[in-house]
Amino acid sequence: MQEKIAKLMFNLFWWPVRALLSFFLSLEVESKENLEKLKGPLIVASDHHSFLDAFLIGASFPRNAKIFPIRYGTWHKYYYFPLLFPIIRAFGAFPIFKGNMEKALQPGVEVLKSGGTVGIFPEGKRRHLGRPPKARRGVAYLALKTNSPILPIHIEVKFGITVLQFFLRRHKAKVIIGEKFYLPKRKIIRREDLNEPADFVMEKIRSLYPKNKNKAKKSKRGNALYFTSKFLYNK
Hints:
By secondary structure, this protein is an alpha/beta fold. It has one domain (2-233): Glycerol-3-phosphate (1)-acyltransferase, CATH 3.40.1130. Helices cover 37% and strands 14% of the residues. It has 10 helices and 7 strands. The chain has helices at residues 2-25, 53-60, 76-79, 85-90, 101-104, 106-113, 138-146, 163-167, 195-206, 226-233; strands spanning 28-31, 42-46, 70-75, 94-96, 117-120, 150-156, 174-177. A 7-stranded mixed β-sheet has the order 1-7-6-2-5-3-4, sandwiched between helices. Helix 7 (138-146) crosses helix 9 (195-206).
């Protein structure tokens, strides 16, 4: 039932959200994938700059995208905040609690195993200007546990943009969507075994940064990080 309600909410609010973001941020979308053909199971992994990121990602896909709804794991303090709870739940999000990673991400595993889409910010929280991006282990756990592909996304928007700045139309936004990929299979014995796969996901996201556009064309496979993958997983 929650999946159907979330799907309805995504379709219902797509037009107004897209219109607002296009007007106030001149939203631009660049994609290496045919967004109309993408379907679950899928992990949508993006860097995290502002409170607008989830809205920017949703508005970047076609209104009736097969991957909708994108169900985000949300820190429990925000998920259960009285004013936000009904809205967040209606859009299909699930709460994330600190502690046991397997237990915390079990709702995400169930969504992926049922063919759905999970949205995740691998860094775990909004990144501040000057702090290098570093992934936590959750994105790697979800991908390896369910053998689901990952769709890397980079968002170009002002770090920590405020509501006032948004309405004053002082900034622009661009969403760059890369090619989906699978993490090479590996046995997970310790939590530390997830560090390298998680870092690899962030490398994929970083490859979408403007300064790396030309570099991304070097590999014959169209994957600048293919050899990085071999290095990471064939030791």
